[in-house]
């Protein structure tokens, strides 16, 4: 007997969602003047500047109080786009970068977001001039290892993220400021310092407020970027917008135009600072690079540290995905040999779980190669521990093109 339908095709069951749509989730902590509708240290989640304005935080609030609160959020959304999830917390204006990263404030914000925050920026609106040492606020430099400690804590809590610090109040030439890639006893691979500012906007402020850094802009670009992308990608990210009068004149948090300190910019680049700049022959303004506060390290076995933001984001994302796919395997039973070791079939199957994550990342153009290797001597009877190693080869990028050109009378 035949089925009159001729052909019957049923929809298969859909497994767990492997599409990662949370990479843009970001957070922002800002020291602020009092806001009537939003208490200090209260995490909120917003998706646009319209959401922010419901709390009375507007461009007018910034103007009246001579601060940058609405500014950082509006810049975030200008680059990341409306609809992007942003977790925001305001703290007292007396708080500093150091006290913020030392306190429970950031941990509270990270924990309130269901483990989903991928990048966090911390900005301040100081009421008093900072103590400057070697051209930078002393508490800024002291905050870098503390911020790395916060990132380490977040990693242990299974919510790895990158941290941007507002490098406000630059007050020295590039030859005297700290080399962020060579801070003694510090390898802050999860921390970046932003010193760039929209000079024309800063000119509308007075006093200390003129020496701010546009950390909200950089956070927005990072949120918009895919995990393997350099936030300075020249083709992808132009932070200049003439229609919105944004970033028309790039400057530094010294409130000096780039053109005033042009000869110093390469040195700031070499020392690992993040700022906006224009290129001869290319319209617009780009972020200079995706620096972190750590040297480049390659060991004898070819292992590299996360010496760029992109490398760190790739590692964070891979770790999140690997945790997600291996968690269901915990406490399952597997056949073992007489020595309590995995049989080859189970070993290959479990390696395939991790390799599938890497295959998807390769197909998405996020990594060049990835491999899962399980230690066949793992003891599942007594120790009940599966020992696994993962290796990733990231995507490459062009930081500079060097070439020669000649005029010839024949080729």
UniProtKB/TrEMBL annotation:
Domain of life of the organism encoding this protein:
Bacteria
**Protein's name in the database:** DUF2586 family protein
Give the species this sequence originates from: Empedobacter tilapiae
């Amino acid at each position: 007997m035949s089925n009159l339908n001729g052909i019957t095709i049923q929809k298969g069951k859909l497994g767990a969602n492997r599409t990662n749509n949370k990479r843009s989730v970001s957070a922002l902590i800002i020291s602020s003047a009092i806001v009537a509708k939003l208490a200090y240290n209260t995490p909120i989640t917003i998706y646009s500047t319209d959401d922010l304005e419901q709390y009375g935080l507007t461009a007018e609030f910034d103007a009246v109080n001579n601060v940058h609160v609405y500014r950082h959020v509006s810049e975030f959304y200008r680059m990341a786009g409306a609809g992007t999830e942003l977790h925001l917390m305001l703290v007292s204006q007396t708080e500093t970068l150091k006290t913020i990263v030392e306190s429970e404030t950031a941990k509270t914000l990270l924990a309130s977001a269901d483990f989903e925050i991928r990048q966090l920026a911390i900005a301040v609106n100081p009421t008093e001039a900072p103590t400057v040492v070697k051209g930078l606020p002393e508490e800024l430099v002291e905050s870098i290892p503390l911020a790395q400690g916060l990132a380490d804590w977040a990693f242990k809590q299974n919510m790895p993220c990158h941290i941007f610090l507002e490098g406000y109040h630059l007050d020295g030439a590039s030859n005297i400021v700290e080399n962020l890639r060579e801070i003694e006893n510090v390898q802050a691979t999860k921390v970046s310092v932003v010193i760039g500012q929209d000079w024309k906007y800063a000119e509308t402020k007075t006093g200390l407020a003129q020496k701010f850094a546009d950390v909200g802009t950089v956070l927005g670009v990072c949120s918009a970027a895919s995990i393997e992308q350099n936030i300075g990608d020249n083709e992808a990210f132009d932070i200049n917008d003439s229609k919105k009068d944004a970033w028309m004149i790039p400057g530094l948090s010294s409130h000096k135009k780039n053109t005033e300190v042009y000869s110093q910019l390469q040195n700031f680049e070499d020392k690992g600072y993040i700022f906006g700049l224009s290129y001869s022959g290319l319209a617009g303004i780009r972020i200079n690079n995706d620096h972190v506060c750590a040297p480049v390290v390659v060991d004898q076995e070819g292992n590299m540290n996360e010496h760029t933001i992109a490398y760190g984001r790739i590692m964070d994302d891979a770790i999140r995905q690997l945790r997600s796919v291996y968690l269901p395997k915990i406490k399952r039973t597997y056949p073992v040999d007489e020595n309590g070791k995995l049989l080859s079939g189970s070993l290959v199957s479990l390696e395939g779980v991790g390799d599938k994550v890497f295959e998807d990342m390769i197909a998405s153009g996020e990594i060049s190669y990835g491999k899962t290797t399980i230690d066949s001597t793992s003891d599942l009877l007594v120790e009940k521990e599966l020992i696994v190693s993962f290796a990733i080869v990231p995507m490459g990028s062009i930081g500079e093109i060097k070439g020669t050109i000649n005029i010839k009378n024949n080729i």
